[in-house]
Amino acid sequence: MSTYFRFTHAALLVAGVVATFSSSAEQHQQDFIQHQAHQHGVVTINIAQDDHDLLLEITAPGSDVVGFEHPPESELQKKQLETAVQLLKQADQVFTLPESAECSIEHVAVTHTLVEHQDEEDNDHLNDTHHNHDEHAEHAEHAEHGEFSIEYHFHCKQIDKIKSLDTQWFTLFPNSQKADVHLLSEYGQSATSINKQHSRISF
């Protein structure tokens, strides 16, 4: 099985995690994700396991990670943002998997919405006043609620050895108070919460 196919399959499983748990609510999937992400101090962690692949997807408010949710306004904030992104790219600094599971990282993606919107974006729509208004409203919403999205894709030779995993998230980002965890595996689904005092995720 190719690496690309494994990653795509695992990514679809994570989408299934969100869809499964949000289907019981009276909201659409996108509304569910945004609602979770915009609670300061609350992180969302989606975990999907399929065969030997493990995919973790984290959504966190910008205030939890860097202390602000708008584009950086000073050199200090730019440095804070750069440092946070580099740290988040180190999956083994954020999560600890059992050595016996023989896991290797295959893909890491770190994105955020704490960015400036260039003037040329608006210039593309000068003849559409209504569209410009919607664009600005959407940009303002992102600026007010800047967030991070992180994906870690592991391939584990002995994935059955994973009974739990630990996260250093609360040590690295102390502004976070808790994380809502959604887990989907070949054996079922579950939901739980972790916090600074209890940061172990049990499968």
Question: What can you tell me about this protein's structure?
Answer:
- By secondary structure, the protein is of the alpha+beta class.
- It has helices at residues 3-22, 29-37, 62-65, 75-88, 91-94, 119-123, 129-144, 169-172, and strands at residues 42-50, 53-61, 95-96, 103-112, 147-156, 164-167, 178-185, 188-195, 200-202.
- The strands form two sheets. It has a six-stranded mixed β-sheet with strand order 4-5-2-1-7-8.
- The longest helix has 20 residues, at 3-22.
- It is globular, with a radius of gyration of 18 Å.
Short description:
With 203 residues, this protein is of the alpha+beta class. The two termini are 25 Å apart.
Q: Give the helix tally.
A: 8
Q: Helix coverage percent of residues? A: 25-40%
- Give the N-terminus to C-terminus distance in angstroms: 25 Å
Largest sheet: 6 strands, mixed
Question: Strand sequence of the main sheet, in spatial order?
Answer: 4-5-2-1-7-8
Q: Find the count of extended strands (DSSP E, 2+ residues).
A: 9
- By secondary-structure content and strand pairing, the structural class works out as alpha+beta
Low-confidence stretches: 3-7, 17-37, 118-143
